[in-house]
Amino acid sequence: MLGEYRITGRGAAEIAAGVEGAVGSGELQPGQLLPPMRELAADLGVNPNTVAAAYRTLRERGVIETAGRRGSRVRSKPATTGRDHIRVEVPAGVRDVSDGNPDPALLPGFAEAFAAAARQAEKEPVVYGADAVEPELARLARADLDADGVPDGPVLVASGSLDAIERVLAAHLRPGDAVAVEDPGWGSVLDLVPALGLRTVAVGVDDDGPLADDVRRALAAGARALLVTCRAQNPTGAAVSAARARALRSVLEEYPETLLVEDDHGHRIVDRPLHPVAGVTRHWALVRSVAKAYGPDLRLAVLTGDPVTLDRVHGRQRLGPGWVSRLLQRAVVHLWTSGAVDPVAVAVAYGVRRDALTAALAGRGVAAHGRSGMNVWVPVPDETGAVARLLHAGWAVAPGARFRLSAPPAVRITVSALRPGDIEPLADAVAAAVGPAPARRYG
Fold first, then answer.
1. In terms of CB atoms within 10 Å, which of 56, 97, 143, 203 comes out highest?
2. Who wins on pLDDT, 119 or 63?
3. Category of 243 on φ-ψ map: left (φ > 0), alpha (ψ -120 to 50) or beta
């Protein structure tokens, strides 16, 4: 059942830690069946309740899953391994269009921003007990949110989008609760949810965002939270349209106790308007990161939401890191106010590359999706074969498995590094590798 690996331990924590370590090291493989609890208890000479507690811990950590009489097995994508292991090693001479990074040429320099923040810190030092949020950052962020029609709410700061999403989920949900997630969707979120001991429920996606009927089915089946990407959806480029936002709000009106989390990481890199879904559920949050527009190493995101959610997030943050560095917050304020980034020019730059690639693929009979942001999603009949053939042709693309639960196979291409002369050769290589694909929903 477990091959060469043998589970050991006398206490529940020790047994769970051993199994989790074996999954992380590769000694236990995804999908591998674990012994029945009574059988393992007899083998270890412990009470069956001890093994049951260990298995419960492993489920809550997203390491294993249990399917009734079919037993417990290692999750197909266990939280301990993460999806980053599903990547392509890029040999020398191969162009990497797989990494999802912004174009460094479109990012601002940091020297003046941090120098200005340092000068302000000398005049106004931040000490214990100071406000967690830089007042000017809160003012600017709230003004942007107001302009985009986001409901009123407090503003907090987290260490990036994923940190904010984790804190919001933890503020309301308990291990075992179900979360409706986009499929395909951001691989880090698909890892985070089971790592928190929560269950993922897949919701299909098309160019206009999550499918309302799928959301209704997920909520009717008991999902307590819904995660929605507003624009520049990773990996598909979907952007929630006005009509889709209305449809989603209509569904959520039937389930007002749903926790709604909206991720608008595409803010300042897309030219499509925001159509927020928030406003119909009791608890909600909207998150905006600065990573894509200003640089991934600026680990900062602002979030707003209903007062109860934001109060819980702030209270838990205060007991951990305390606050996100006000020096960093002041540097971001300087970047926002100095004109270091022209959001319109950035959106146009990514849009030109994205549209050129999707048009070139369409001309070769290959369906592709990329309504906003910096990625193009290409459905393929054989994901492994397509990745290998493209690698052989000199292009490293991201396997769709990094972003899927049950959605059909595909590959993701990041357009950030593409130049005009790259479009036709890349389209030729993709067409040769994948062949024509149907232009249908991709989730």
1. 203
2. 119
3. alpha
* Residue 175 Cα to chain centre, angstroms: 19
Q: Where are the alpha helices (H) located in 284-419, listed in sequence order?
A: 291-294, 307-319, 326-337, 343-363, 383-392
Question: Tell me, what's the pLDDT at 161?
Answer: 97
Q: For 92-150, write each residue's pLDDT tens digit.
A: 889 999 999 999 999 999 999 999 999 999 999 999 999 999 999 999 999 999 999 99
- CA proximity to 76, closest of 86, 68, 88: 86
Give the residue from 415, 431, 433 showing the smallest Cα distance to 360: 431
Take residue 369 and report the two structure tokens written for it. Answer: 């999706």
Could you give the angle at the alpha carbon of 271 between the alpha carbons of 269 and 272, nearest 5°? 115
Entry field: residues in the chain: 443
pLDDT, tens digit (0-9, with 9 covering 90-100), for 320-331: 999 999 999 999
Rounded Cα distance, 441 and 443, in Å? 6
Q: Looking at the predicted structure, is the pLDDT value of residue 69 above 80?
A: no
Query: Which amino acid type is present at position 387?
Result: V
- Please give the Cα distance from 204 to 148 (Å, whole number): 26
CA distances from 187 to 36, 192, 223, 372, 382 (A): 31, 9, 19, 18, 20
The 3-state DSSP class for residue 310 equals: helix
